[in-house]
Amino acid sequence: MLIGIAFWVLAVIAVATGLAVFVVNSMARATYALAVSFIAVGVQILLLQQNYLGLITILMMVMEMAVMAVYMVMFMGMNPALMPMDMTHGKKTAIATSVGVFVLLAGGALLIPWPQRRGSPPADLTHALGLEIMGEKMLVMAVVGAVMVATIVAGVVLASHRTRYDRFGDDLRHRRVNDAQPGGGKQ
Amino acid sequence: MTLEAVLVVAAALFAVGLYGALSQQVIVMVMMGLELMINGVLLAAGGFWWFLAPAPSGQVLLLVILAAMTVEMAMGFAIATLLHRRRGTDMTDMAQELSQ
What we know:
With 187 residues, chain A is an all-alpha fold.
């Protein structure tokens, strides 16, 4: 009973703050609202007895919001909380599409005769998950690891001010530019 | 708390995120919309796992969803940084021709 009440309270918080992200008039408030929404969902996952994933979700999202704050300070050059904004396009189409998708998904969720639960969760789920990703499902984690490395490389290449692709061209066949200073500005 | 309740909440989060991803112009706000959508998928996957088949292998799928969220965030910030550096903007409408 208490878990049910907690779930619905968290559901209202998660959806309301999720909506607030696109309603409040500053990016800083939107970031805080998104963080609250994520924390509410993380706690809901904890209520579903998935302690490890719930906690990881909360920690990851708090860090992500911190990165967003750093991004805003870096590129906006002012206190974003003080800057009202409404930068949208195609609002009516977006509302119609999202309402349609919600009706479709919620209708499916309510109308489909879901099967009965098969099996029961392990006593120590975190331990069982650890065994799983270090055993039978190791290939999945190995692929995720490779994707993470590729993401780091791609992120650095995209975000760097000047890389070897700037100096030698996309095919890396250009002659070295005549830098005024080795490793200096772009030609 | 039932599977249907979890899925309806997840659908609401997904729909709100979809609205943001479609309607916002600032890249960071579009990313926020995409993250809300992935958050809905994560909640739905957690609900499916708990109410239908609570075997440890199902949890690996949730880890993959979390990894997808991380990749989306990292690449989104990198592209936003690139766009800001090259065009001095953080709006999607200014990035319709990425080759220029």
